[in-house]
């Protein structure tokens, strides 16, 4: 597997947050000046009256949740609005030239040449059938470069972007690269024509945190060395504060707040920003201060006699995982991939255990084995001392009733053809709980528990927002009164404020129902807020485990330290 | 306890399914309207044939063969035996649509369960898929002709042959959908609550396959109608004197030089049926796909 080892670049954090150096030396005025920008899709306005200035060499971050219009602003700057999108008012002035009124031929010279884009998803933004070197060369040829100089420059750019062995790797195809490496190639493409302004639209959201940090460090260093201005679009306030000279907060198509990272984080003016700062999980990662959610949490050692029904044994651990291993056959090469390799840990009753790791760490495989969706190659995953693999049919049913999942994607985890009532009712029917009437009452009770109005019951999931759907998924999981919820990245797909609400709900439910959680996440900041114990996984092995405070304050493994250091916004959480 | 708000800030962006009312509004595209109108005319003509047809379908007028369209009493002319082309066409549409409906029904009834089973249970996938592969290796019409020869020439025989020949395409479509849906989180959640395979297939996967099945049915329908015409033309389908569009073509072929219109109109009816279903099917596919939201 290709690694994202950075050789040549020194970490740029913590960076002095000096105000942007207005380049008074050369041309006067900002590089980019947007005034009163309005953008609409069809008849629906999505961006309203946006003013934005970017000085030469300045780094501006635009922060907002999904649907806030932040990506639309970027698309409007490039005049690449999709579908029925169009600019309905305002000016976009680049060095005094109005791009909002420029014709297509003019825009072609601006795009890539003066304003370049680093797109979000490295998996889809490279041509899978073209060698990477050729894709960088394309950008150079568009600039008029010809002959052997192209190849020379391609190798230079790849090396600068942090691709090791550029001679060899330029001949490779995108599928031979990891996500982080692909993102480096995209950066090389963006920088190929020495643009004055870089637009980075969630450039690292699809990547693991440690890779994310290295890429952003690198991108920042490259931009700084060239004096390139940058607009960084992100949903992560902490990341924006780390990486920008100035932060703009967008809500419903408007800029509601702007200022230096300190101003925005320490003294937010707008109500929305205040909530965003309060909800930013990174802010919880502080010494001493327990954090708002910490108080609602049961103490690290959960009370032994928690009201776990059904099992009078009341053993201290709901789940015991012993030497668990899972191998997959790798297609083509005839080899075996050990996705999970000798993992052991326990989930104490009534508490929250977090399973942390990056993609490929095996955390989802562990959860699937626990849910009985996969069988382990060796070792065992015990629920209340019994293993679901190899259990008889009736025993398996009883075990499955005790462990219920909540998945990541609220849009895919509910059957779109069923009503909410039917979704929540399904486990009750399958496990034969109650009769028709009592099940109906139970569904209503569950809706109350997850704080959804009862009239949602007759709606289809399609009519609900992401957060509401996730509440329905939680209600469904709670329906058969399980002892353990497996929360597989259950809040990762949600906007920050919604995420906070769901985390509050989970903490509240745990307190009232005594249900245990196995909280699977890649996001350490969130884990810090909710978990009692942490298990850090890396490439199928347990890297470190222990109480959450111990792991966060005195991590023993280098990898854990790496992960902790990569949490965006940590620098401002003091 | 923390106060939890009901509404989240996230607006509802893309509904995952398209409800019936929404579907109708999304079907207001030129494609769907033209296709729907063509089909409406043809289907009505077929349905109302006993009421509207000026003559019986096999009524022979030896005094008026080879009349041109526009002749009084024979709006679209007559054929070599003086049979009214308009009347025969209306009855012929009935027969053709009947064959189409039976064939589609057969493909859906046989193909859907096979596709669901093959997509869901791995051990069943290989045998079912190999069988469909083998069947698909024969050109559709050749297979239908072979089956029709075995089944014997009749309307039912033609319909069953055409239906069997279309089963593999339905199996493939449903199998692919099932395999995709099987990995979706809501099916995993159902598995984790110990739902049985048949239950998951019936309650979760089949309802979510429906739009794909409907769209595939609109593809099979014109193929079956066309297939019927071919079988009847070859004498393997509906037997004269019962009219079908294929038989009319076959009869008129001998006299193409003298009375081309006797072949023209049934040909146009076939075109209208096929084009109508294709246009409507395309429009339906777009309308049922929640991601294809164009303003």
Short account of what is shown:
The complex is a heterodimer of chains A (574) and B (295). Chain A is built from 20 helices and 20 strands.
Q: Find the count of extended strands of chain A (DSSP E, 2+ residues).
A: 20
Mean pLDDT of chain A: 82
Using the alpha-carbon principal axes, give the shape of chain A. Answer: globular
CA radius of gyration of chain A is 26 Å
Strand order of the largest sheet of chain A: 6-7-8-3-9-10
How are the elements arranged and paired?
The complex is a heterodimer of chains A (574) and B (295).
Chain A: E1 32-41, E2 44-54, E3 59-63, H1 70-77, E4 85-94, E5 97-98, H2 104-110, E6 115-118, H3 132-142, H4 148-160, H5 166-169, H6 179-191, E7 197-201, H7 209-226, E8 229-234, H8 237-243, E9 246-251, E10 254-259, H9 261-266, H10 271-279, H11 292-296, E11 317-329, E12 336-348, E13 352-356, H12 363-370, E14 378-383, E15 386-387, H13 393-402, E16 403-406, H14 420-430, H15 436-449, H16 466-478, E17 484-488, H17 496-513, E18 516-521, H18 524-530, E19 533-538, E20 541-547, H19 548-553, H20 558-565
Helix pairs in contact in A: 3-4, 3-6, 4-6, 6-7, 14-15, 14-16, 15-16, 16-17
Chain B: H1 20-26, H2 30-47, H3 49-52, H4 85-120, H5 122-137, H6 140-151, H7 155-182, H8 185-192, H9 197-233, H10 245-253, H11 261-288
Helix pairs in contact in B: 2-4, 2-11, 4-5, 4-7, 4-9, 4-10, 4-11, 5-7, 6-7, 7-9, 8-9, 9-10, 9-11, 10-11
